[in-house]
Structures are given as structure tokens and as C-alpha cells.
Amino acid sequence: MQKTSILGRLEILADAAKYDASCASSGSVERNSRNGRGVGSTSGGMGICHAYAPDGRCISLLKLLLTNHCIFDCHYCVNRKSSNVERARFTPEEVVDLTLSFYRRNYIEGLFLSSGIVRSPDHTMEQIVRVARTLREVHDFRGYIHLKTIPEADPEIVAEAGIWADRVSINVELPTAASLARLAPDKNAPRIEGAMGGLHSRIVDARDARRKYRSAPRFAPAGQSTQMIVGADGTSDTQIIDKASRLYGRFGLRRVYYSAFSPIPDASAVLPLQRPPLMREHRLYQSDWLTRFYGFAPHEVSEAADANGMLPLDIDPKLAWALKFRDRFPIDLNRAPREAMLRVPGLGVKAVDALLGARRHRSIRLDDLARVTNSLRKLRPFVVTSDWRPVAMLDLADLRARLAPKPRQMELFG
């Protein structure tokens, strides 16, 4: 029997939204209601879904689907039309009331809204946009709003989402067009990328207008993001890295999110029986960071993969790359440029910047590294300081085994 109470439907639709990972709210415009006007804020509070900004700030969002009814039959989706799951649906007005009620109770600071496709893509997209428009226009809501848009909908309706939302996103779903055609026959890769291109053009135009005229309207000021499912097909990590790089380059995305495939009830026979290791998802995020913040080109990250194009699970991609190209090390931390220091395993961006600041006044010693990183064991073979030189450590045949994390017994009741 279908649940009809608000709490019953919230239980279903909030749980159904957990498969969408792309709900971080970094990059939004700062707005608040401290002057006595409006409702909401883009900062503070605790809530239902916790996302994290690049500065480590925890962001709480009400994350739910408008409905888990869907006319599409994507094999990997628990809400596909052939799935035997309990269905529920909110009206736009109910989502607005929930958002305001949760905010006033200090549960959330924003809304992440997605939906299954009900009746038609245009109808569903209009309902999603109506929620955001009502929050902004009628209630003067100044909190964060992230809308998941539908590429099959009319481009003008999709574009209206960017007028009211801080961030918009369209899921590419799978890394290759062949996999999308096989596992999501109702979706079309060129259509998805076309919709992403349309949003990107409007975001760029709005930013250009804001540079000239401060009164120009904003359009998705926190940009757009996307999500790829990992492990539902045979796509290798190098193919995923290449796809993500092209998406960043073509559409100026703020983030590409990776979601490890999770087996679902009554799954299609074309899907794998087991989920991929969660560590694979983690390694892809690390590779994403290498290209975005550490100066690695996508083909360089791919060089850390094995012959099958898969990143190692026992060590991180930067360490795997360094072990493969030992001739580029050790790096003299008292003389090397920032770009070279960022390639040292165990050194993050903040640590490198701290070392660059310190070496203006004195020579870097091994003790200085211990203050900025917890990975001194990993660092030693790859760096030279005023009191340390690795000598022949880079030539050791078992160096990888020495640097890989030690196996540990899992706790029975942990």
C-alpha cells in the first residue's frame, strides 16, 4: 500500500535520493536573512544530507526526489519503471513547505531536488522549477538550491532552472555512449551533452554580463556538475578519467562525481552481480584531484594504471605514478618549483605552500616535513632536504611493498 502521509513519503523519497552523490554546495553565492528580510542562509546549521565544501565546511541539505515514479527503464536504477519498489510523490507545494519547515527548525540550509520522470520530461522539469521559483519569489528563500535537470526536457524549461538555482546538474550516467545505449535505452548521450553545453553557454554569458553590469541577473552562480556510475559496465578507469577530463574542458564543470554501482533488487541480467570495490571510487576521486589541483595531465594520471587501464587499489594514483617514473625523483625541496613539489607522494597543496613560505627564510629540513604531513614514510624516498638524501632508496626492488599501507586486522565489532 502506498504511503500517503508526509513523513511516510519523505522516508521513501529521501531514501531514493541517496544514490545521487552530486550534492556538494561549494561555490554558491553568499546570501543570508540576517537583515530581517527573506528566509534562509547559505551557511550554518545541521541537517539531513551532509556535503562538504573545499574548505572543509559542512553543508546540510534537504535531499529528496519529487517522485520516484519513472517512465524510463534504466537497468541500473532502483526507481526504473519495471522495479518493484514502493512509490511516492510530492507536490511542488509540499516540497516548498518541507524546505521552509526544515530550515526554520535549523535542520538544513538548502535544498537538493531531483526526480523520476513522471508523465513527460517537460512536465517533470516544470514541477522541479516551480519548487525553486516559489521558494525564491514567494518566500524570498535565500538558502542554497541545487536542481537536478532533465536533458530530455525542453531547453527553455531546463534553462529556467538556472535562474532560480545556485547549481544545476545533468548526470551523464555512464562513461561511454555504448554503455548508455545498452543500460539506459531511453537516454541519449548526444542529447545529454547538448543540454550540458546549453547550460554552460548561459552560465558563461551570465558571468560576462555580471562583469559589465552589477545588476545583471545571476544564472546558476555555483555552476553545473555531473555524475558517472562506476562499475555497472566494463569501462576502465583510464576511460573514465579521459571522459571526466573532456567534460571539464568542454562544459566548465565544477565537479564530476563518481558513484560506485550498487546492486539493486530484481536487477537486470546485464548488470554485474557484485558492486565494485568502494576503494575504486575513492581512487577515481584522487585522480580527479590530481588533474584539478596538482597539475597532472589526464594522460599522466592514466600512466599510473595497469595494463588493463585500472588504477591500483592498494596505493594512491600519485604514488603509483611516482614509482613508475622514479627517474624524476628525488626532488630537492629547497630548490624545486611548486609544480615539481606537487608531484611528491604525500605532499598536498597546503603542505607545498607552507614549505614554499618557510624556505624563504631558512632551509627545509626533514623535521619541517613532519610538521606539514603525516606521510613522512612515503616522502623519504622522493625528496632531498638540507639534512636528508635518500641515496639508493629509489632503486629498491621492493619499494612499492615498503610504501603500501600495511594490512591490518579488521575489528570484529567495529
UniProtKB/TrEMBL annotation:
Location of the Radical SAM core domain: 54-297
SUPFAM superfamilies for the chain: Radical SAM enzymes, RuvA domain 2-like
What keywords sit in the KW lines?
Answer: Iron, Iron-sulfur, Metal-binding, S-adenosyl-L-methionine
Please name the CDD domains in this protein's record: Radical_SAM
The question of whether Iron-sulfur is a record keyword is answered with yes
| Alphabetized Pfam families for the sequence | Radical_SAM
The molecular function terms of the Gene Ontology recorded here are: catalytic activity; iron-sulfur cluster binding; metal ion binding
The protein's required cofactor(s) are namely: [4Fe-4S] cluster
Instruction: Spell out the NCBIfam families in the cross-references.
Output: rSAM_link_UDG
Write the protein's name: Putative DNA modification/repair radical SAM protein
Q: Which organism is it from?
A: Novosphingobium mathurense
Question: Species lineage, top-down?
Answer: Bacteria, Pseudomonadati, Pseudomonadota, Alphaproteobacteria, Sphingomonadales
